[in-house]
Write a structure and sequence with these properties.
The chain is of the alpha/beta class. It is about 40% helix and about 15% strand. The longest helix is centred in the last third of the chain and has 17 residues. It is globular, with a radius of gyration of 24 Å.
């Protein structure tokens, strides 16, 4: 509509951009080996205080929103066949080795140069049970049709030790030393954290065990990919067996930081930024291969959502249950947001978003949940539209998108990219389609709206007093409450972090209806 503010129609214009293949220039090649980080489940019985996801034991009936079905595992295997996989990291969200049957299937069938199973060791508290589990793993490893290196990586920290003690660590060291010390490709590793003394204390119970005095800084965990380990020690046992020990920083993650007092979040922000620079070279969606090629870094969540690492955009979500490798790759490269972040990195993303919403960058860094950085940064539909326009403008200025191509675009999109940056910024600021209006489009749920109001009170969004008052009015009118001021909103008792995580890791209705758990 002539003269209207197109940021008030952000959903319409983003959908229009996604429907058209606008990035028709010859793309940077990502034909090298790729990496997949796979979360099998959201549940874990350990409950570490620093857990990214505040994972808990199983608390509701098993379903595909929380963990993979058998069908989902088969879909993961098919995706891996197409993805030219060099490294599979089975990790986070919950305790992956609790899903033993799926772990064995993955170890048998996924074609990759390396598989790393990250675990708390909860299953290894009993020595005999640990022996049996590792025996099953080793047999699955031996049944493979293609070679790989299989790593069992135990996380060791004072947080894990609160419930587990150090028994799993001692058991696994002794089992690998006794049964697998001659294996070069079926190995045990340890991951611990800076300034954590749990490992050094535990090995005192192992005769003549000794940690190397010096560490190697910033080495790779793979011969095929450059997968950074910030620090690496060696643990020596008396018979000559050696175990690699990686050392990392602890991320101070949480979905409800107080952004009204940013000084309280500064340490976590610095840790986040340091990791992004050293471990990712500001390009977390790209995997640098040892031979100089580049591949893609994928994350598959426990509900089947799949995205480029730290590059999840909610209106372009893909899911392993309903999308194959070609769909996922094509739609990732078609989206000006996801492709330009792969191509140009996180510094480019931060610079563009800071033109209109610097709080979105602060929010993503303060939350520190690396997996959901994209979803957190682009929660506001207007941010998605603004970034899409600016990325297209930059590619046009760089002559990667030809003028002849632009003339073939829908007229509405041509008008978007012709709009000067300063005008875009003014239209964004003047738009009435705030994150609050966006939230009002969702089906009303009293508990979820209370959570949203808490985030407003914590300063998570760039909104003014009138807009906050409108959010409170909407909440009161539909909930029957009589909240007068945002300061009255206190954190609810219950699974607040779980609910907020579910908002970020939304499983589409098509997947829920189309898949049997």
């Amino acid at each position: 509509m002539e003269g209207s503010n197109f940021f008030d129609r952000s959903i319409y214009f983003r959908e229009l951009i996604l429907k058209n293949n606008l990035l028709d220039f010859e793309k940077q090649k990502f034909g090298g080996k790729s990496l997949v980080c796979l979360f099998l489940t959201r549940f874990c019985g350990v409950g570490c205080p620093f857990c990214f996801f505040k994972s808990s034991p199983v608390w509701r009936k098993e379903n595909i929103e929380d963990q993979f079905s058998d069908e989902g595992i088969e879909k993961v295997i098919k995706f891996a066949e197409k993805a030219n996989l060099g490294y599979l990291l089975v990790s986070g969200g919950g305790e992956p080795l609790d899903k033993k049957r799926h772990i064995l299937e993955i170890v048998k069938k996924i074609k990759t140069d390396q598989i790393v199973l990250v675990t708390s060791g909860n299953w290894a508290k009993n020595y005999s049970s640990a022996v049996n589990y590792l025996d099953a793993l080793f047999h699955a490893f031996r049944e493979r049709k293609s070679p790989t290196k299989l790593v069992v990586r135990l996380s060791v920290s004072k947080g894990h030790a609160i419930k587990l003690g150090t028994t799993p660590l001692v058991n696994l060291i002794n089992i690998f030393d006794k049964f697998y010390s001659d294996q070069d490709n079926f190995v045990f590793q340890i991951k611990t954290f800076e300034n954590d003394k749990t490992l050094r204390t535990a090995i005192k119970d192992i005769p003549e065990a000794e940690l190397s005095a010096n560490y190697e800084g910033f080495t790779s965990d793979s011969e095929v990919l450059i997968k950074a380990i910030p620090k690496k020690f060696l643990l020596y046992l008396k018979g000559g067996f050696q175990i690699k020990v990686g050392v990392s920083k602890i991320f101070d993650s949480g979905l409800r930081p107080n952004l009204n007092a940013p000084e309280k979040t500064q340490e976590g922000i610095e840790t986040f930024k340091h990791d992004l620079k050293r471990a990712e070279d500001y390009k977390p969606g790209v995997v640098f291969n040892s031979n100089g090629e580049n591949g893609l870094d994928w994350w598959i969540n426990y509900n089947g959502n799949i995205s480029n690492w730290q590059n999840q955009i909610r209106d372009n979500d893909k899911n392993i249950y309903t999308n194959d490798h070609n769909d996922i790759l094509s739609d990732t490269f078609k989206d000006p947001i996801t492709y330009s972040i792969i191509d140009k990195g996180m510094q480019y993303r931060d610079r563009i978003i800071s033109e209109i919403d610097p709080k979105a960058i602060l929010r993503a860094q303060a939350i520190g949940l690396r997996d959901f950085v994209g979803a957190i940064t682009f929660q506001d539909y207007r941010n998605r539209l603004y970034f899409s326009i600016r990325a297209l403008q930059d590619y046009i200025d760089e002559k990667k998108i030809k003028k002849d191509s632009v003339l073939k675009w829908p007229t509405e999109i041509q008008n978007l990219v012709k709009t000067p940056k300063e005008t875009l910024q003014k239209l964004y600021k003047d738009s009435t389609f705030t994150v609050i209006e966006q939230e009002k489009l969702r089906s009303f749920n009293k508990t979820e709206w209370h959570d949203f109001l808490e985030l407003l009170g914590l300063g998570h969004y760039e909104v003014n007093d009138l807009e906050v008052a409108e959010a409170i009015r909407h909440y009161n009118s539909l909930s029957g409450e009589k909240v007068q001021n945002i300061t009255e909103i206190k954190s609810q008792i219950g699974r607040v972090e779980h609910r907020l995580t579910e908002r970020l890791a939304h499983t589409s209705s098509a997947v829920q209806l189309g898949v049997n758990a």
